[in-house]
Automatic annotation (TrEMBL):
GO molecular function: structural constituent of ribosome
GO terms (BP aspect): translation
Keyword flag Transmembrane helix: no
Pfam families recorded: Ribosomal_L9_N
GO cellular component: ribonucleoprotein complex; ribosome
Species this chain originates from: Menopon gallinae (poultry shaft louse)
Similarity annotation: Belongs to the bacterial ribosomal protein bL9 family.
Residue intervals of the Ribosomal protein L9 domain: 68-113
Claim: DNA-binding is one of the keywords in the record: no
UniProt keyword terms in alphabetical order: Ribonucleoprotein, Ribosomal protein
Protein name: Large ribosomal subunit protein bL9m
Amino acid sequence: MFRNVQTIITRAVQRSAGNVEQKRTTFILRRKNEPDVTKQTAWRKLKKKHYYYLLEEHTHAKKQPNIEMVLVKNVENVGNIGDIVKIPQLKAYEYFILTGAAVFATPENVKKFGVLKKEDSIPIHIQQILKKLSKTHVPVIMHKENPWTLERWHVRVALRNINVMCTDECIELPKEQISGPNMDINEKDFLIYLTMNDKYRTPMRCRLFQISPNEVNVNLAYNPKFYMEPINAIFPEEQKLLEEVPLPLVERKGGIVILND
């Protein structure tokens, strides 16, 4: 009788085991109330309070560490070939291992692909700053009544108004001089170049606005979404270059970009 019952229970457990999803999870617990120390040969009955436990760690819910990988290709916004980067596990397998863009950072791979790293390659954080600068459309506000000639410090002030800090030496103006007031060039674009760390050069699109100081609010004197309007170059020879510059950022987040520090 006992054997028949045992056989029935065993078969029922085996049938139900196929419907159970097994997970490698571990719960690390500790007693809320530690029992007193007893002798090695003695035996002590635990009380009810000794069966209360506190959860120390749940390994399944623990955030997995990032994987160190060596890039075998130049990946935008991540790094250059030979760089060692840390990437989340799911993203590492899906976007880097399967595509062949990176390998695990073993000593052999670090030595193998580290040789391919170019000394003149642009660091990833520099690439991100240059990309953001090239997509920024700078409003340059000049006087509508008094005569003026565009100089570097005018552009520096315009850049400072959009939280880009630089020195006059970083700014390269067009070869031809821009003077005013001249309403024929109002709300038209011109191209400048910024040099970062005396090494990295990027183009930036600027738009000239001539505003009278009698305006109640200077910020309302021109369309704040001017970057969505068509490009009209002050100098016709720059029209094609201005169109080749990446489209400006739709939204500019806060923060300060420091050039040539």
